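Illustration 12: Large ribosomal subunit protein uL5.
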Amino acid sequence: MTDTTIEAPATPRLKQQYNDVIVPELEKEFKYSNPMQVARVEKVVVSMGVGAAARDSKLIEGAVSDLTKITGQKPKITKAKKSVAQFHLREGQAIGAYVTLRGDRMWEFLDRLLTLALPRIRDFRGINGNQFDGNGNYNFGLTEQTMFIEIDPDAVDHQRGMDITVVTSTKDDKEAQVLLKHLGFPFKEN
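Figure caption equivalent — predicted structure in token form:
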């Protein structure tokens, strides 16, 4: 009989930091008696709208391929709910794509976003800290996909922006902002 050992996959770096450093700090800061009361990131949604796909259906394929490279997960294609003649849009036509990240894949994406992608933005001075939705969730947009190292700038056919939503377990914006600051989100100083 052979003796095989199965190694557990490595814990993402940001998740390890959250569990070891950030949770105790937030417990002290908000005076929680239980670590389960501390806010945590539940999911990250990355969406890419492709309005020009109404005229050229091949553009949606580029968006799907870019999102797949960036997130490591196949995106779901969003379709138009109504026909709008002025926009040359028909009901059921593909107009965008989105990915919902949870678990280790979410932590890996956040780590790459904060340490590699955001610093590559030209003249970057931080992200706006006033874009919380009132329920502890943070939304922000990026203007192009080439800031991610997975995307080859020479192979980009069309510049596409994306919206990123970070959903937290808290319903308080202030607590969510403190959590994201501890995670390393570079908010602008107002």
